[in-house]
Every structure is written in C-alpha cells, then in structure tokens.
Amino acid sequence: MKHSKPVVCPPLWWRLFAVWYRHMRVYTKNLFSNGLPPFLEPLLFLAGVGLGLGAYITQSMEGLSYLEFLGTGLLVTAAMFTAAFECSYGTFIRLEFDKVYDGMLAAPLTVNDLIVGEIIWAGTKGLFFSFAVLCILSIFGVIHLPYSLAAPLVGFLTGMMFAVISLLITSFVRTINQLNFYFTGFISPMFFFSGVVFPTSNLPHYIQPLVEIVPLTHSVRLVRAVCANHYGMIHLWDLFYIAAFILVIGFFAVRRLRGRMVS
Amino acid sequence: MADQKIITVENVSKTFPKVVAVNNLSFEVEAQTCFGCLGPNGAGKSTMMNIIYGKCTRDEKPASRMSIFGYDPKHQELQIKYLSGVVPQDNNLDDELNVIQNLMIYSKFYNIPDKLARERIAYLLDFLELGEKTNSRITELSGGMKRRLVIARALLNNPRLLILDEPTTGLDPQVRHLIWDKLRLLKKEGTTILLTTHYMEEAFQICDTVMIMHNGQRIIEGPPRDLLAKHIEKYVLELPDAATLHDKFHENMPDHARMERVQHGMRLFSNDYDYLKMLAGSMAGENYYLRQTNLEDVFLKTTGRGLNETQ
Hints:
The structure holds 2 protein chains of 2 kinds. By secondary structure, chain A is an all-alpha fold. Chain A is about 75% helix and about 0% strand. Chain A has 11 helices and no strands. The longest helix of chain A is centred in the N-terminal third of the chain and has 32 residues, at about 65-95. Chain A is globular and about 70 Å long. The model of chain A has no long low-confidence stretch (mean pLDDT about 90). By secondary structure, chain B is an alpha/beta fold. Chain B has 2 domains: about 5-220, P-loop containing nucleotide triphosphate hydrolases (Rossmann fold, 3-Layer(aba) Sandwich); about 235-290, 2-Layer Sandwich (Alpha-Beta Plaits), CATH 3.30.70. In chain B, strands 5-6-7-3-8-9 form a 6-stranded mixed β-sheet, sandwiched between helices. In chain B, helix 3 packs across helix 4 (about 115-125). The radius of gyration of chain B is 22 Å and the shape is globular. The model of chain B has no long low-confidence stretch (mean pLDDT about 90). Classes of the chains: A mainly alpha, B alpha/beta. The interface of A and B includes residues 18 and 21 of A.
C-alpha cells in the first residue's frame, strides 16, 4: 500500500540544523564551565608571554612583535583544539558509550545528516573559540580591529578541518585510549611546526614540504593575512587547500563512520 | 483500513561476517494490528527490526522486496522513520539533557513547531505517567521510567507504525502491565505495532499475530490462540523430579499422550485432562503440576530446549 499523500520529511537544511541544535543545546547547558575557559586561556597566554617570555624575544617574526605573532596563531589553534577534542573523544563517547547516535538514528535523520551536522557544529565551536581569543587580544591591544573581526571565520574553517580529520581517525579507533596517539602524534606536533610558535621559514629544507602538507599551516597563514589585511596569491592556495581538505577527508570520514553506525 | 498491509517483507536475508542473522524471511503486518516477533537470543529479531528502519542493510542477494507504507528502507529510510516511532533495545536517551529537553530536541528532528511540541510532550508524559519527571535528569530515572520515556519519544510524531524491540525486558510487573495497556490503547487509536519480546505472556496479551523465529528463519506464525490449538496439546503434567519414573511411563504411553524429558524430570502432554489427572493421582508423594499449556510450551517445542552458541 502506498501512503495516501506524499510524506513531507524535514528538508536537508533543517535536518542539519536539528543536529547542530542538539550539540548547541548540550554545550550551552553548562554555559559557565563551557563558555568561560575559552576566554581565560588567551588571558593566561598574554600574562605568560607579555610579562615573562616576551622580554627575552626581541627579534620580530615575519615583521610582527612576538606577542602579535603568537597571538594571531592562537586564533586558529584554539579552534583546532576544540574541534579535535569534540570530534574525537566527544564523538567516540556518543558513538560507543552513550549511544546518542543510535537514539538519533531512530528519528528521520540519516548518517550523513548526523556527521555533516556535527562537522558544522565543530566549525561553530572553532568560530566561537577564535572569537574568544579575538576579544582578549583586542582588549589588550595586541591585534587591531576592524580587519581582525574576520578572523573567527578562519576559526570556523579550521574547526571544520580538524573535525573531519578527527572523525576519520575516530572511525578507526577501537578503544578510547588509542586517541592519545592522535593527540601526541599529530595535534601536538602540529602546534609546534605549523608556524604558530615560530616561523617555519627557519626550519631545515627537507621539512618544508611536510609543513606545507599539514592543515594548520594554512589556517595560520590565512589568519595572519586577515589580521594584517594583506593578501597574496598564496592565500588563495590556502583557501583551496582548506576547502579540498574538508571535502575529501570529510567524504571518507562519513563513509567510514557509516560502517560503524549502520550494520 | 482493514486488510491493508503496512509492512511487507519478502525473502529478506542478512549475513554478518560470522553468522547469518536473518535467513530468507518473509512476513506481512496488517494495519492496526500488533505483530509480535518471538525467538531465542540470536534468532534475528532485532536485526529484522533494524532492517525495517534502515539501521541495518539487508543482503543484496537473494533478490528481496520490502515495503513499509510503500517505501523501501534501502532508499527511503527518512520517509519510513518519519511515519514510524522506534523504541530500540537500548534506551539510548541523551544523558546530557533532562527529560523535557530530550523530547524537545527530538521533536526538532521531526520539525515539529515548538508550541505544538510542548503540548504534545505534556500529553505524552501524562499518557505514560511521567508528568512529575518533566525536569528530572535522565540519570535520576529508574529503568521503568527510562523505558517509558523512550516510548514517549517514539510517539512524538504521532507514528502510524510503532516498532518496539523488547519494550518490557527487565521491568517490573506494574510497569509491564502499564505499557501493555498503553500499547492496546494506541492500537485502538489506529497505530500498527511491531514488537519483539521474550515474554510469552506479553505476546499472548497484546499480539494479534505472533511469529516464532529461530536461526533467522520463521518457524511458525499465526494468532496466539491458533498456535496453541495447532501446535500443542491442551494440557501438560509437569513432573520435575520424576526421572526414575520415565521407563515406567514409556512402556504404556497411550497414543494421545506425548512425553518430553527434561533434565531431572519430564512433562506429559495430552488433550485428555482426565487421563493426566488420573496419572497425577496415581503418583504417591511425587511433586507434580497439572496445567493448561501456554505459548511458552509452543515456543520451547518449536525452538528446542537446548541452548545454542549465541544464547
């Protein structure tokens, strides 16, 4: 028997929004403990570098004072860390321990909706964390408005990039402790070797190609261009890299995770 | 609505790397009826439920056909899930949210407007006697409350088909009876119900049709009373400690009686109540229990008494 009148399911954009909304509600439920630390961390950084470390580093880096150099980098590393945690430990817990996805899949949602919605949510968190860093940095005059107001958009893209790669890694993980390797072996090194803490131009030649391959390099270069409002062709390449990374890695992440959610 | 098929399943199989969970299974569920799926653990009941709403994909071969409201879960899982409510085997509520938030967010998945959702949720919490728990955390709820909340969640979009995977396993008799009452009421209001259960009593109480599955296949199917009439004698005399009497009975067993050995004793099945009563009377000091047969006897007879490796 055919259903008498055609069924009108919620459209794709609504389903993605609904998944995003679920994550947003869970996150904002503990607004104080979830929302405050993103503002405290850059404060700590300012205190550490401004009062301590900064006095020893007098050389300018890529034409910026060290405080500004490191500060602009933090705009995207904050986004990286939050997205990476959300889509590795967070995702694994929802997948294996809490069975949240199983519950959601009983509603009119597909696995694709679930994962793409989650990637968009991780991007949103990246945007928010970048924004928090931006607030602190501009209050203390480290970076200058209004151009840097666009920096959280780079945070959004960075969040999406680290969401897709974290989801892909998580799809291979059998026990949650295996994720430690991901953070020690991939995320932490990236923090040091992507031009956040020091310019990569001084690294040995044979490491340079490697630097260009990892995703954070492109985020950092792009966000510094945004803050300085100074663009070149290379930033077009960065944008292209980011878009391609999200699409390609995202495609495989969805495919792999589908295998874990639908038998 | 009578005679309309809500679910049609033809020749569906599902093979996992190590086991054939569903093996060439076919069945139909008519509108406004309750269809119960019985079977030992590992019989393929849950897998079948999951295939119906797209949580599990069926094998490509052999050729099979499925229609739920005219939709095929392979390509149209969204339509099926939009028209159905699912109560999975695990409760999988969102522990990070409280009762009302769980339901409000779930109603977003169906795109129910907030105001309507609030009214519907108030009604459903009341219907399942959870009204006082509106703002409770999930972790504060008892097993029975969680189960009822999952049922409320499945009812949010006024489903025309309700799929329940072991809805009352592990619950106390009060909650179980409450859930049965509600399911009967829903059926009366026009909902079609598909459920799996391990409780024969449950199947007998609420199902119009029962299918007993074993090793992914259908063993028998029909209304519970018909299954009783067709597949088993009317009465059974249970002798739990009578192993020694076995030979004595074996020799002069009349045609209308059937004997089944169990670990230390035996069961004698017959349609002749007087005969069994006479036997029971002749047994000085022996423990015995003479009763009508029930669905559990049919179940054990058709699926065997021994355990298999998946149980």
